[in-house]
Amino acid sequence: MSSISADDAGLLPRGRVALLPGAVEVRTSSRVHITLIDMNGSTGRRDGSVGFAVADPGLRLVLTRGGPPRCDGAADPAEADRITAAVRHAATALGVPDTVRVRLHTSVPAHSGLGSGTQLRLAVLRGLAELTGRRLADRELAALSGRGGTSGIGVHAFTRGGFLVDGGHRTRDKDAFAPSRFAEGVPVPPLVYARTPPEHWGIVLALPEGVRGLEGTAERDFMSAHTPLPLPAVRAVAHTVLMGLLPALEEGDLAAFGECLTRLQDIGWKRAHWERPELRPWRPLVDLMCAQGAAGGGLSSTGPLVYAVYDRSACDGAELAGRIRAAAGRAGLPLASLITTTFGGPAATVLPEE
């Protein structure tokens, strides 16, 4: 991620890679996770999620048959290890050899709030299936991935793209609150709403410097300590989503849509995250982004990514990013990266030309 507009950088659409026989390319968006809806569970369902696919940063990799699992193009050994682990998981799930080489062209930053782990696992799984002559239906792909045990936004962003709401899990299918990696075997929640936002709606992604999102046991412990949420807080989130966010999107009302995103930061599950000591100083960044021209925004997933939406037809993305970075600097909120981008579509699979 860099301080430029993804559109200006020519990243959309991305250029074509010349593929040799026995290779397959998979491209995915990343995702912003707006909020979990029902962290109370007393009505017979739990979780439920709201989020959307983001065009950039995106994952782009090429898988080629042959040799032991290997990754070329990774930024560091940790990234290479994540990719080879995804290959081994996919090979086990499909019951095929893991003799695959992966060439990474672009990647999604890990542990930043962009859902990199889910996109990587799904991309490698789909690519390896294609290499072995198997075309996976979306439902089968999701089941084999082992993802979606809490939020289905990452899985649905991969298969559908756009703005998404899932309906969570029946409590008989998932008997406790737990992050997805601790809930493998739980079915992917049903997609209850999907919409492609207006083309002129843009997104700002700001990554705070020196802050990490929750992962692993830290995320599990946080979820355990903060659930169940009081039912009135859950109802406030559901009301804001159903009677605010979704009608605003249907009517193309960006101002109302952004206002609802910002409102969600102070109720329910998002409020619990903003009260974390390492994140609390960054809450003003949302308001700062709005003061510079964004319509509203919030924290993605467990952070640290902060996002906002804006009108691309009325505001130049690069200029908006510059104003936000300058204002954040004056406020003592240093940013590791800042880009403007667009809503993303479903993952694409590219095969060698005949």
What's the shape? Answer: globular
Largest sheet: 8 strands, mixed
Helical amount among residues, as a percent range? Answer: 25-40%
- Number of H/I helices: 10
Q: Which secondary-structure class do the elements indicate?
A: alpha+beta
Q: Gyration radius, to the nearest Å?
A: 20 Å
Number of domains: 1
- What is the CATH topology descriptor? Ribosomal Protein S5, domain 2
Give the topology:
Layout: E1 23-38, E2 45-65, E3 70-72, H1 77-94, E4 100-106, H2 116-131, H3 138-145, H4 153-159, E5 163-166, E6 169-170, E7 191-195, E8 201-208, H5 216-225, H6 231-250, H7 254-264, H8 268-274, H9 284-291, E9 296-299, E10 306-311, H10 317-330, E11 335-342, E12 348-350
Parallel strand pairs: 3-4
Antiparallel strand pairs: 1-2, 1-12, 2-4, 2-5, 2-6, 5-7, 8-10, 8-11, 9-10
Helix pairs in contact: 1-2, 2-3, 6-7
Protein name: Beta-ribofuranosylaminobenzene 5'-phosphate synthase
Domain GHMP kinase N-terminal: 83-162
Organism: Streptomyces venetus
